[in-house]
From TrEMBL:
<dbReference type="GO" id="GO:0005829">
    <property type="term" value="C:cytosol"/>
</dbReference>
<dbReference type="GO" id="GO:0070929">
    <property type="term" value="P:trans-translation"/>
</dbReference>
<dbReference type="InterPro" id="IPR020081">
    <property type="entry name" value="SsrA-bd_prot_CS"/>
</dbReference>
<keyword id="KW-0694">RNA-binding</keyword>
<comment type="function">
    <text>Required for rescue of stalled ribosomes mediated by trans-translation. Binds to transfer-messenger RNA (tmRNA), required for stable association of tmRNA with ribosomes. tmRNA and SmpB together mimic tRNA shape, replacing the anticodon stem-loop with SmpB. tmRNA is encoded by the ssrA gene; the 2 termini fold to resemble tRNA(Ala) and it encodes a 'tag peptide', a short internal open reading frame. During trans-translation Ala-aminoacylated tmRNA acts like a tRNA, entering the A-site of stalled ribosomes, displacing the stalled mRNA.</text>
</comment>
<dbReference type="GO" id="GO:0070930">
    <property type="term" value="P:trans-translation-dependent protein tagging"/>
</dbReference>
<comment type="similarity">
    <text>Belongs to the SmpB family.</text>
</comment>
<dbReference type="Pfam" id="PF01668">
    <property type="entry name" value="SmpB"/>
</dbReference>
<protein>
    <recommendedName>
        <fullName>SsrA-binding protein</fullName>
    </recommendedName>
</protein>
<dbReference type="InterPro" id="IPR000037">
    <property type="entry name" value="SsrA-bd_prot"/>
</dbReference>
<dbReference type="InterPro" id="IPR023620">
    <property type="entry name" value="SmpB"/>
</dbReference>
<keyword id="KW-0963">Cytoplasm</keyword>
<dbReference type="GO" id="GO:0003723">
    <property type="term" value="F:RNA binding"/>
</dbReference>
């Protein structure tokens, strides 16, 4: 079965978004991955509590892991609560994992989580991006291009 294109990921409810990543990295390719979660983690995510601002993903021994993502403890979780910043396994096809591993090792790219969301079936998913870090000059050019596109759209709207 073919995977959907990144633009067609079935996002129903976005829980956490890494907006800074679009500025800090040049995004090359996107992947949708499932998350292996404990019960209290799912309940925290459904409550809309998560932070992936300083998180990243890595491939070790043929498996992909989400590292440093903060899903706070569930308020009514008592002794069954989870550790907030534990490593979480990501569910991907072997072909996708090999593609990521090759890009990270050969091209020096980074695996950045862009968002955590629930799809229409209620499954927690992570949108991962293969990205290359931008240097300060690249960031200035990105800002200049973004501002020019905004000004151009404004001029076209005003002048018809």
């Amino acid at each position: 079965m073919a995977r959907p294109k990144p633009e067609t990921f079935d996002k129903q409810k976005t829980v956490a978004e890494n907006r800074r990543a679009r500025f800090d990295y040049a995004i090359e390719d996107k992947f949708e991955a499932g998350l292996v979660l404990q019960g209290t983690e799912v309940k925290s995510l459904r409550a809309g509590e998560a932070s992936i601002g300083e998180s990243y993903a890595e491939v070790t021994e043929g498996e992909c892991w989400l590292i440093n993502a903060n899903i706070p403890e569930f308020s009514h979780g008592n002794r069954f609560n989870h550790e907030p910043k534990r490593r979480r396994k990501l569910l991907l096809n072997e072909r996708e994992i090999n593609k990521m591993m090759g890009a990270v090792e050969r091209k020096g790219m980074t695996l950045v989580p862009m968002s955590i969301y629930f799809n229409r079936q209620g499954r927690a998913k992570v949108e991962l991006a293969l990205a290359k870090g931008r240097k300060a000059q690249d960031k200035r050019e990105y800002i200049k291009d973004r501002d020019w596109k905004r000004d151009k759209a404004r001029l076209l709207r005003e002048n018809g």
